[in-house]
């Protein structure tokens, strides 16, 4: 039994034969692609080389068409489902003139999503015209056979959809020159004919002269009309170019970066304010602790006397707490003293001694 690429090729041929029998590839059902689409939906990976190549051609051609990217996975287990769902959603919305399904080159396994019957069904059922630009010149997928038009690469798909404005202007100028030349030939021929008739038929000379003036007037009007039409077309092309530059992804990215910088500065200010408030509270708390700390009392010259025992020390607050010979420990601000009680005095005697 075939395995790997051989198995995938057999499945490809099997699916192709099945869908061909169902009429999925019939030329009669394929729709015409608009010659000058204004709204183009692009289904592809947002990070792949395909969309970069496609947009590069769109920019170079300076077309006024609006491009909307519909991001999907183009390989992996979820790719076929995402692509089919994207086609169905765009077909339901009916907001675009054409849909371009594109992907860069890859192995047969990488292109498997475009051989899935779910994708084929979505393309076949779509009311919007769909073109494909998948892989390289030699790559063919089921989606290519189902699509209304197949381009060999993403770049070719962009070139097919985006009319070259410069080429159109050159063609328009050529047609204008040809039209003016034809009209001049006809007018010159008519003028020569009138001149001959005027010599031959002196009786109707005045009428012929009037006709000649009319022809010249028409020639002037026609020339003006042609010039006005060309100017309108040129203005439209310049307007479309301006729209494209205004909606450039680079400009939107720059605006987003500026917003991020502003938000970053605000966040840093908030963090600094928060730290300052916490530092102030910490200083206040530290000052309060220092004011009630026993160590602060010792620093003013006082001491703490503790009676040493085998288990733990007891703080002595009265002379009655110790007896002569007891070992005591005196805690000072700096260091401690270990002493032995020689004599105890009653509280009253202690006051008199003081």
Automatic annotation (TrEMBL):
This is Exodeoxyribonuclease VII large subunit. InterPro entries: Exonuc_VII_L, Exonuc_VII_lsu_C. Pfam families: Exonuc_VII_L. Residues 24-340 form the Exonuclease VII large subunit C-terminal domain. It comes from the Bacteria. One of its GO terms (molecular function) is exodeoxyribonuclease VII activity. One of its GO terms (cellular component) is exodeoxyribonuclease VII complex. One of its GO terms (biological process) is DNA catabolic process. NCBIfam families: xseA (TIGR00237). Its EC number is 3.1.11.6.
